[in-house]
């Protein structure tokens, strides 16, 4: 389970805080040093950890102790609130046009991040909301990716548009939108090609799609297991092509979880969903407050 080690460590810090009737400034500082270590070990970005700790410290020292809480409980409450803030406070939805208009969503991400699986998961969510999604196979380099999208689309009961491997992704996107308009589909979801690493061709291809069709939402899929790399990837995609939100996959694995805690603060973009398994139903809305509770135990 993600965050297991972080959770254990924070609970230990809190246990020693809870027992204290009074907290000196030194007590708070010692506790926060341990919180800092725990966050760094969970692979949260260094800059994010530093800002987080100073925000908590500022509030915790010279705090207005509420009558109902011990000083220790107050520190725990502040850590909780700051964690929620770090993850963006609010739940963010994929922004859709009114049902009468067409929404175009572009999915991006490195190969293996879980993009194709997540694309089909999203289609299922949108279908459940009464939308009519069309999945579009824009990964023209891997025939297996087209096949995988078709199989997943079938499982979800969602149509898949493909033109094989011999067309440019931007042209496929354009044709898919025309097809969707004709066939009464109102959300077009483009599954684009990933690469093992960020490279210029991949970025240019995404830029070309964006220059050819009007993309309303660009969603980046990153793998939680890759830790800070996921955060760096998100930063680079955001700089190069502009993203509207991030989906973090494989949070069901035993990842240390740092990506989920850092991405919002580093990129300024919200986490929309988290992938919690390989099944097409394993996609959860991202609730910063619930995630913080999960971490704090
Ligand atoms: P793509 O190359 O980015 O399109 O990646 P795929 O969609 O093919 O996914 C790569 C692998 O990750 C597949 O084996 C998926 O089943 C798996 N996967 C995707 N999302 C999740 C998730 O949230 N949890 C787990 N455990 N596996 C996932």
TrEMBL record:
Single GO molecular function: GTP binding
Primary localisation category: cytoplasm
Residues of the signal peptide: none
Alphabetical keyword list: Coiled coil, Cytoplasm, GTP-binding, Hydrolase, Nucleotide-binding, Ribonucleoprotein, RNA-binding, Signal recognition particle
Reaction it catalyzes: GTP + H2O = GDP + phosphate + H(+)
Cellular component terms (Gene Ontology): signal recognition particle
Chain ranges passing through the membrane: none
EC annotation from Swiss-Prot or TrEMBL: 3.6.5.4
Keyword Hydrolase on entry: yes
Family indicated by similarity: Belongs to the GTP-binding SRP family. SRP54 subfamily.
Function, in words: Involved in targeting and insertion of nascent membrane proteins into the cytoplasmic membrane. Binds to the hydrophobic signal sequence of the ribosome-nascent chain (RNC) as it emerges from the ribosomes. The SRP-RNC complex is then targeted to the cytoplasmic membrane where it interacts with the SRP receptor FtsY.
Name of the protein described by the UniProt record: Signal recognition particle protein
Annotated organism of origin: Lacrimispora saccharolytica (strain ATCC 35040 / DSM 2544 / NRCC 2533 / WM1) (Clostridium saccharolyticum)
Lineage: Bacteria, Bacillati, Bacillota, Clostridia, Lachnospirales
């Amino acid at each position: 389970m993600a965050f297991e080690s972080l959770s254990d460590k924070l609970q230990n810090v809190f246990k020693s805080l809870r027992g204290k009737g009074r907290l000196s400034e030194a007590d708070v500082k010692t506790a926060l040093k341990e919180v800092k270590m725990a966050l760094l070990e969970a692979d949260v970005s260094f800059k994010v950890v530093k800002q987080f700790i100073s925000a908590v410290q500022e509030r915790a020292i010279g705090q207005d102790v509420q009558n109902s809480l011990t000083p220790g409980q107050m520190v725990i409450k502040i850590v909780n609130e700051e964690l929620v803030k770090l993850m963006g406070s609010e739940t963010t939805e994929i922004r859709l046009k009114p049902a009468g208009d067409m929404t175009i969503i572009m999915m991006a991400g490195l190969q293996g991040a879980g993009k194709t699986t997540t694309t089909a998961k999203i289609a299922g969510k949108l279908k459940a909301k009464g939308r009519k999604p069309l999945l579009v196979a824009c990964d023209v380099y891997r025939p297996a990716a087209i096949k995988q999208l078709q199989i997943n689309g079938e499982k979800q009961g969602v149509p898949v548009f493909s033109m094989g491997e011999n067309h440019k992704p931007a042209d496929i996107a354009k044709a898919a939108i025309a097809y969707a308009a004709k066939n009464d589909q109102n959300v077009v979801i483009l599954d684009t090609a990933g690469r093992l690493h960020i490279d210029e061709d991949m970025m240019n291809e995404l830029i070309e799609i964006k220059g050819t069709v009007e993309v309303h939402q660009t969603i980046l899929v990153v793998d939680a297991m890759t830790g800070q790399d996921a955060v760096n990837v998100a930063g680079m995609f955001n700089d190069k092509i502009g993203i509207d939100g991030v989906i973090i996959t494989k949070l069901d694995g035993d990842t240390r979880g740092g990506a989920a805690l850092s991405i919002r603060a580093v990129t300024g973009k919200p986490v929309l969903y988290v992938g919690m398994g390989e099944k097409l139903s394993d996609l959860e809305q991202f609730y910063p407050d619930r995630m913080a509770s999960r971490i704090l135990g």
